[in-house]
Amino acid sequence: MATLKDSRRSRIKKSIRGKIAGTAERPRLTVYRSNSAVYAQIIDDAQGKTLAAATSYVKGKVNNNIEAASKVGKAIAEKATAAGISKVVFDRNGYLYHGRIKSLAESAREGGLQF
């Protein structure tokens, strides 16, 4: 059974995904946070392909704080620029724009991504 928080995030996520989509010109930068790590992917929804991905996951360790999210943002920006991507659409995936999500987004902007 889904918790109240999960069902709320699912409802918000559906609303967000109804409004945005990644294209070849502006792929979608989506973020997922778990209890142990932060993940980011750049996705072209038209082709259904992941163009770049980064994570803070380290086997056997919990690496899930604001500093780790900042490193993931820098890493995804570097991988995106290497793939020739400069503009993206940010998909916060139903999470509040606060804490780890905000840190990841700001460091991706500092790394050169525009959104």
From TrEMBL:
<dbReference type="Pfam" id="PF00861">
    <property type="entry name" value="Ribosomal_L18p"/>
</dbReference>
<dbReference type="GO" id="GO:0003735">
    <property type="term" value="F:structural constituent of ribosome"/>
</dbReference>
<dbReference type="GO" id="GO:0008097">
    <property type="term" value="F:5S rRNA binding"/>
</dbReference>
<comment type="subunit">
    <text>Part of the 50S ribosomal subunit; part of the 5S rRNA/L5/L18/L25 subcomplex. Contacts the 5S and 23S rRNAs.</text>
</comment>
<comment type="similarity">
    <text>Belongs to the universal ribosomal protein uL18 family.</text>
</comment>
<dbReference type="InterPro" id="IPR005484">
    <property type="entry name" value="Ribosomal_uL18_bac/plant/anim"/>
</dbReference>
<keyword id="KW-0694">RNA-binding</keyword>
<dbReference type="InterPro" id="IPR004389">
    <property type="entry name" value="Ribosomal_uL18_bac-type"/>
</dbReference>
<dbReference type="GO" id="GO:0006412">
    <property type="term" value="P:translation"/>
</dbReference>
<dbReference type="InterPro" id="IPR057268">
    <property type="entry name" value="Ribosomal_L18"/>
</dbReference>
<keyword id="KW-0699">rRNA-binding</keyword>
<protein>
    <recommendedName>
        <fullName>Large ribosomal subunit protein uL18</fullName>
    </recommendedName>
</protein>
<dbReference type="GO" id="GO:0022625">
    <property type="term" value="C:cytosolic large ribosomal subunit"/>
</dbReference>
<keyword id="KW-0689">Ribosomal protein</keyword>
<comment type="function">
    <text>This is one of the proteins that bind and probably mediate the attachment of the 5S RNA into the large ribosomal subunit, where it forms part of the central protuberance.</text>
</comment>
<keyword id="KW-0687">Ribonucleoprotein</keyword>
